[in-house]
Amino acid sequence: MEQLFIKTHFVEMNLSDIIEQLGEDATKSILSSFSCPLNKDVENFIRYKAIEFSKRTLAKTHLVFWETEDQKSREFVGYYTITSKVITVDRNVLSNNEARKLRNQGIFDTSKQKFMISAPLIAQLGKNFTSGNDTLISGPDLLQMAVNKIHKIQKDMGGRFMYLECEDKEKLLTFYQKCNFKVFGKRKLDKDETDVNGKYLIQLFAMF
Fold first, then answer.
1. The domain containing residue 184 runs over which residues?
2. How many CB atoms are closer than 10 A to CB 133?
3. Would you state the pLDDT for residue 4?
């Protein structure tokens, strides 16, 4: 007997659009279904902070849904959040080619040998472990969606540099480095970053 396979795809939705379409209470219900036992900061942000950050335009969150082509089944599988920050990058962590590219996008302080640049930050990235939904999408696929969104923005506004921050854990660093991100520094935790392990975050960048 021939087996029937149901085709599926991913749907990305801006949290601001969801709030506008469904209202804040219904949106909160969706977000409350997110769980990430591996990272409480990722879980608490989407549950308790993402709506306010979106409303104040501090950072924009995009929900990712796994959906069948007939739209009869949809699951909330993950999200990513993007914002923009001004950061500094030491010249000595860059190759000559990377430094040359960055000179066209930022300000170079010759006395400190540092670049100062306004760049997109992938501020949050996480899969939803509720009901095993994390198995419906891979980490690289979710990260690539965030990267693609930044590419789209930069196509209109310019720029080739993006970065993210993560806890100092070998598994996380290996994952991001395999996805073409490179360590360039670390940042001390802010006082309100109480859900993050350790005293600092590792910073990684990518240039495309």
1. 8-207
2. 19
3. 56
